[in-house]
TrEMBL record:
InterPro entries: GmrSD_C (IPR011089). PANTHER family: AMP-DEPENDENT SYNTHETASE_LIGASE DOMAIN-CONTAINING PROTEIN-RELATED (PTHR24094:SF15), SECRETED PROTEIN (PTHR24094). Residues 82-194 form the GmrSD restriction endonucleases C-terminal domain. It holds the Pfam family GmrSD_C. This is GmrSD restriction endonucleases C-terminal domain-containing protein.
Length: 199
């Protein structure tokens, strides 16, 4: 029943996933100007295990399954919430997939980047909330190998292959950094400024 309710909320025909909370260009530019600029901190002590993710989100769904349902078109799920059919359009590269195993759930601001820019001082509960955040533009379904190419790189080091998506990607990145009070470095700010200039 939960799957049917969520399926009803899926917008058919929209090209690509649309996470919640993407700000306007003006709001993103204001937020970017207000972020603290400083060199990234150390990677020492980082582990993905310090960001427990794909936790239970209710209705038998974990976070990954919830995003697959949200970001796909005509998604049907089994009693365990795992998709049995659907189509996923990856806005990063324009790829279209019908198998959920071809789709990764990307943390727009990667866990390791968050660690270097403020999350190393968070509690485990705070990191878990960050890694499973469904209310901000932090999680998105994308082509798996594109996500793997991205790794933990910031926008000065990696941008989506589809240049048409750079504006939206920058708006999402800035929104997450603002929400979680994470810092940015000078190269990252320059790249984000350029990307928002394409909006």
């Amino acid at each position: 029943m939960a799957g049917v309710a969520l399926l009803g909320a899926t917008t058919v025909g929209v090209a690509g996933a649309t996470p919640p909370g993407i700000p306007s260009t003006a709001d993103a530019q204001s937020a970017l100007a207000a972020l603290t600029v400083q060199p990234d901190g150390s990677q020492d002590g980082y582990s993905r295990d310090k960001f427990p993710h794909w936790i239970d989100q209710g209705d038998s769904c974990n976070t990954r399954e919830a995003v697959l349902k949200r970001d796909g078109t005509d998604v049907q799920v089994g009693s365990d919430c795992y998709p049995t059919s659907g189509t996923w359009e990856s806005p990063y590269d324009g790829g279209s997939w019908t198998s959920p195993s071809d789709v990764d759930i990307d943390h727009v601001v990667p866990l390791a980047d968050a660690w270097r820019t403020g999350a190393s001082s968070w509690t485990q509960d705070q990191r878990e909330a960050y890694a499973n955040d469904l209310s901000d533009p932090q999680l998105i379904a994308v082509t798996d190998n594109v996500n793997q190419e991205k790794g933990d790189k910031s926008p000065d080091q990696w941008k989506p292959p589809s240049t048409d998506y750079w504006c939206t990607y920058a708006k999402m990145w800035v929104a997450v950094k603002q929400k979680f009070e994470l810092t940015i470095n000078t190269a990252e700010k320059s790249a984000l400024t350029d990307m928002l200039g394409r909006c």
